Structure formats: structure tokens, C-alpha cells
Amino acid sequence: MPSESIASPQLWAVTIAVLLGLLALDFVMTRRPHDVPMREAIAWSVFYLALPAAFGVYVWVVHGGEPGVEFFTGYVVEKSLSVDNLFVFMLLLTAFAVPSKLTQRVLLYGIVGALVLRGIFIAAGAALLSAGTWAFLLFGAVLIVTAAKVLRDALRGNEHAVDPGQMRATKLLRRLMPVTDEYHGTKLTIRQAGRRALTPMALVVAAVFLTDVVFAVDSVPAVYGVTSDPYLVFATNAFALLGLRALYFVLRNALSKLRHLNHGLAVILAFIGAKLVLHWAHTVWSWVPDIPTPLSLVVIIATLGVVTATSLLANRRDALAQSP
What we know:
- The termini are far apart.
- Helix 7 crosses helix 8 (230-242).
- The protein has helices at residues 9-29, 38-63, 65-95, 103-131, 134-156, 168-176, 200-224, 230-242, 244-251, 261-284, 293-322; strands at residues 189-192, 195-198.
- By secondary structure, the protein is mainly α.
- Strands 1-2 form a two-stranded antiparallel ribbon.
- The chain is globular and about 70 Å long.
């Protein structure tokens, strides 16, 4: 069952060119390491929120309301999942004692790695969907299993844990090459005692790439649960990831306060997983209901609103309990 797409080769070319241009701009911005003031982070966050909003309007006006709703729904899903990325990035930066001035470059490496991996997974997903509707059943099962794991970890209170010494990527790199004790700016390798050595920057980048693989396994099937158009899947992932660097500095202090976020993400992943399974069943038995995309958008936004409210209420309750 080939996937229909709104994108022409020209639109793909323009999209990739704009994406590369924005990434190049980010590399220029982080060429000279510096602490990011809140004003700068907010300005870039607003810019990266305005871009998908404008693109969504373009899709709606030029290609119709259905693709427009699919894009906005997919973007909300990916943005909510990307906030979970930020939790793990924050823990990695702390675990590897990354200097604050180098935080931007580490995040940018993580975003580039995530984009490459998402592109690969999106292409693989499109190939699976072309092979038959059974791919919807496979994606649904993956999301439901992932949702169960996320919820289990959230209930146990250990949804985010990072131990650099136990990560396979860092262990392998330490065996292959010596590693310096100190950071050397944004350099990944330096020449030390006549031989090439890795810096801690290389280890943290490898750790970030490894976590990108895990998140790609979850996020790509999730957005395929909203739309089967590979171009919209790629666009939602790209727009959600591009603003992560700036969003990190805006939400750095607020991330730890969203204590129920993973509970909400588990609900969202389970809902989309069930939607995919029902969609597969609908292609086999027409009497099985098929959940419309507008309803999915309502459920996702409502879930995020509820977990944000419960997180704030829980934080307020704990603050009152600790006050004399």
C-alpha cells in the first residue's frame, strides 16, 4: 500500500535546503562557546515555534485541511516527546560535567544526530507501510509496549537515569582510544603525547547519539500513527527537533517540575498505538472504528494539559508541606 504524499521533489529539495541552512546557522551561533542568556533563548524559541506555525498554515492553505491537521497533530506529538529528550540531555550534561559554555554545541550535535536517525527510520517506516497494512499493527504494538515501559518506570520513579560508566558507547570508545581528563573547547579529539586522543566531549556526543537511537524508535512510529505521509512525518520531526537547543535553556529550570510528564507520554503513546491497531483492523474489517486525526489532537492536547496541571498541583502541595 504505497503512501501518498503532498510533497513534490522540489518541495523536498527546498525543505532539506532550509533545514541545512538552519543547522549551519546554529553551528555558526555555537562556534564561540558562551553562556546563553534567557533573553537569547526565548528569542530563538519564539523563532522556532513561529516556523512550524507558518509551515502548518502553508500546508493547510495549499494542500487542504486534512494534511494541515495531520501536521499540527504530529508536531504536538513530536514536541511533547522531544521534551523528554531534553530530560535525558540534561542528565547527560550533568553526568559528564559538561561546562556550561559547551552545552549549546553538545545539544546541537544531539539534534543533528537525531535528524539523521529520524530520516533513516522514516524511510524504513515508509518502506514497511508500502509492504502492507500489517505495518500499522507492528507500529501499534511497538508503541503499546513502549507505553507500558514508560508508565512502569514513571510509577517506580526511575524513568530517567544515566550512568556514563555503564554506557556501551563510552566503554567502547575508551577501549579504542585514550581519553583526556579535561575538555578542550568543542574539540572531539586532540593530539596528546604524540598520539590522537578523545576528549570528554567525544564521549558525551556518543552518549547523546545512543539516546537518539532509543528516542527515534519511539517517535517515528508515533507520528506515523497520525499521518502516513513520509514528508509530513519528516517535517514534524525536523521542526520539533530544531528548536530543542534554545528550548533547553528556557525550560532548564522547569524540566524537573514536570514530574508527571512521563505519565502523560505513556498515555499518548498507548493511545496512538491503539489508534494504529484499530486502523489496521479497519482495513481488514470495515466495521471496526477508525479514530479520526482531529480527535487524536484533542486527546493529546488534553493529556498534556492534565499532566501539566497535576504536576503543578503536586509541586505546590509539596511546597506547602515543607513550609514551616
